[in-house]
Amino acid sequence: MSKTRDIISVAAGREQADIVFKDANIVDVFGRRIIRGDVAVFGDRIAGIGEYNGKCEIDVGGGYIMPGFIDAHIHIESSMITPSEYARAAVPLGVTGIVCDPHEIANVCGIDGIKFMMDCARNLPMDIRFMLPSCVPAADFEDAGAVFTAADTEKFMREYPFHGLAEMMNYPAVIAGDKEVLRKVASAELTDGHAPSVSGRELCAYVASGIRTDHECTSAEEMIEKISNGMYVLMREGTLARDIEKLISGVTPANLRRVAFCTDDGDVLRGISAANCVIRATELGLDPIDAITAATLNAAECQKLGRVGAIAPGYFANLVISNDIVPREVKAVYYHGALAAKDGVALFDSSAPRHMKSVLKTVHTGKITPEMLGRDFDANTPVIEVSAGSIVTKKTFKNSADGLSRLAVIERHKNTGRIGRAFVSGYGIKGGAIASTIGHDSHNITVIGDNTEDMAAAVSALGRIGGIAVCAGGEITYLPLPIAGLMSDKPAAEVKEKHGELRLAADKLGIADGVDPFMCLAFLSLPVIPELRLTDRGLFDVNEFKFVE
Questions:
Q1: Are residues 404 and 491 in the same domain?
Q2: Quick one: which of 140, 172, 218, 335 has the most CB atoms within 10 Å?
């Protein structure tokens, strides 16, 4: 009560504010306009906008103050760094909140992996809301390191501070009314969606379950239909899947408040963030205030984050200061009224990972030989065709193996010995191989190459801890990822440098233009995105939702 009385006194001008930002262009996301004036901050909250005096006064000099940006759906593991290192990379860009789905580490280490992530996220100047993964594994037939049943989901919801249920990828089961899946959906008040190309009556059935969002739209028409069915659409701009350009024409004044941004599997070390979504949307013609509104107020309301996402009395003082309304160069970032980053540099330390034993040495396989990775080509067996800039594959047939890459997925959690094998078109690797323990979403070992000798050598380089290995003529370039085979325990700068070395090694292998060698490989095993994927159990036709004979 006393704190409320104090902030009222500051707002009314009877008491001085702690901080007053003077002479600012304030981005008003409620009225979608610019207000010239001061922003008064008391403690961790905004007291008022207008004319104020403060104990500390900061002259913005006509610069822009906007709310901190919010990523409405993200997998931190895709940046290959811990949550604390992620915050150090993202906060200087203006990102002060994320809604995180830790289903990558959950598929390897189960609830212990999620607890590790929560531990790493403590005491950071970033609002990290953890959702409970809904699909561990992504599909019932997957061989992951853990399984979350409906009973587990209900138990974890009671025992841990989850914000809601993360993306429900098993959309066929939702539409079919599967009781186990619907128990999971019913366990949370807030459930995110994942419904690529779902339309018509099937979409109605999916939304009727209570699922609120979708981030898989790839056309303006799909986005408009989902909004009209009551969903929020999270326009995705990730490392591989970049959909804003496809969706921007569907954003209108009438439906603006039903869209937000997300990076999904975006890598912040490559500049992918909610701030980048704002910049990209404005480059494609969206009004800057509308883009900021989508990245702040819309995301906060969509994900029920409370008093964030706007500059208004009583809201948390999560503020971004930029010389321009398009936040290409962020000057300062405040979180809960405290300076968190200045001129692109984080002003806080990352917490050291603790309790790591349960997330280390997670690769369990026998020796993998070249003979185990090969298979004869059969013109009657479909080939996975990849396209630049897309995670969607096509099911195609070829007359010969000429120009095709060899692909294998090796079960790595329980040493079952299962290996799936296939051919890939459009990847273009020549004279080497790439192996990785990042393989959505079960994260078995995925290896691709033009010869089985280099493929086996790349797999061998991963050892017990996992990571990414590039092999060219027997020469290995390796990025260790000891945390679940997904993340490094090193600072972000070191990871970025080593990833750059990997990319240089991969670039020498003739991979097709526009194909990201690592992200593309990571998605070739995900059996919930059309059309054709490979798991350790064999080729899977996603459209038919069954294995290829």
A1: yes
A2: 335
- The residue behind tokens 């610019």 is 34
448-451: list long-range contacts, CB under 8 Å, 24+ apart: 448/405, 448/406, 448/407, 448/408, 448/424, 448/521, 448/524, 449/405, 449/406, 450/405, 450/406, 451/370, 451/406
DSSP state of 389: T
How far from 417 is each of 365, 366, 407, 442, CA to CA, in Å? 7, 7, 16, 15
Gap between the Cα atoms of 79 and 121, Å rounded: 15
Rounded Cα distance between 415 and 484, Å, is 16
Residue 406 placed within a domain: yes
- Residue 141's identity, in one-letter code, is F
> Around Cβ 349, how many Cβ atoms within 10 Å?
10
Q: Facing residues of 95 across strands?
A: 69
Local structure of 111: helix, strand or coil: helix
Task: Please state, in angstroms and rounded to a whole number, the distance separating the CA atoms of residues 387 and 529.
Answer: 14
The answer for residues whose C-beta is within 8 angstroms of residue 114's C-beta and 6 or more apart is 102, 105, 106, 130, 132, 133, 160
Number of other CB atoms surrounding residue 379 within 10 Å: 11
**496 to 40, 79, 188, 244: CA distances (angstroms):** 38, 9, 36, 25
Are 141 and 275 within one domain?
yes
Q: Are residues 42 and 118 in the same domain?
A: no
Same domain flag for 87 and 37:
no
- 267-322 pLDDT per residue, tens: 999 999 999 999 999 999 999 999 999 999 999 999 999 999 999 999 999 999 99
Residue 526 tokens read as 């995900």
DSSP string, 441-510: TTT-EEEEESSHHHHHHHHHHHTTT-EEEEEETTEEEEEE-TBTTTB-SS-HHHHHHHHHHHHHHHHTTT
Distance of alpha carbon 311 from the chain centroid: 26
- Answer for the pair 423, 523: CB distance below 8 angstroms, yes or no: no
| Residue 476 · residue 469 · CB < 8 Å | yes
517-527 mean pLDDT: 94
The first and second tokens of residue 341, run together, are 């980053």
Maximal C-alpha separation, the chain: 82
Alpha carbons 43 and 11: distance in angstroms, whole number: 12
pLDDT in tens, 140-181: 899 999 999 999 999 999 999 999 999 999 999 999 999 999
- Decide if 419 contacts 409 (C-beta within 8 A): yes
**Mean pLDDT across the stretch 404-428?**
97
Measure CA 125 to chain center. 19
- Same domain, yes or no: 31 and 170: no
Q: Is there a domain that residue 351 lies in?
A: no
